Structures are given as C-alpha cells and as structure tokens.
Amino acid sequence: MHYPLHHMVPEQEANSKPRQRRSRWVLLLLLPYLGLCFPIVYARSTPALWGFPFFYWYQFAWVILASVLLAIVYRKLKT
Fold this sequence. Notes:
By secondary structure, the chain is mainly alpha-helical. Helices cover 47% and strands 0% of the residues. It is built from 3 helices and no strands. It has helices at residues 30-37, 39-42, 54-78.
C-alpha cells in the first residue's frame, strides 16, 4: 500500500536496536498531577497566605512549580 508521506518516515532495519528507554526525569512530571489529584487534602481555608485561603494559593503554587519542573525536565532531556 502506498501512503502519500511514506517517503518521509525513516524505515527501521531488522537489526536496529530498540528505542532508548525513557529517562527517569520524566517522572518529575507526575508530581503536579499527584499534588492536585486529591482535593480532599487541600480543600480547606487555613493556612491563609496574604488573605488567600489555602485552597487557592496551593493550586497557584503548583502552577509555578509545574512550570519549573517542565523547564528542568526539558533541559535534562535536551542534553
């Protein structure tokens, strides 16, 4: 069967090695998911930070932390 963009996909040889195992750095990307996955843990109002209940500033802290973790993983995998 002929596909229109088939010539752009590199063919794998029969003796080619399997793809490299994923780096363990990628596991850091699970932290934001796990940190926000269980709202029962952070669905409270205390401790407040600058007048914001814990529920709000905890989630916003994960936004910033997730960005930092993405940058770290990107740099580690790029090198």
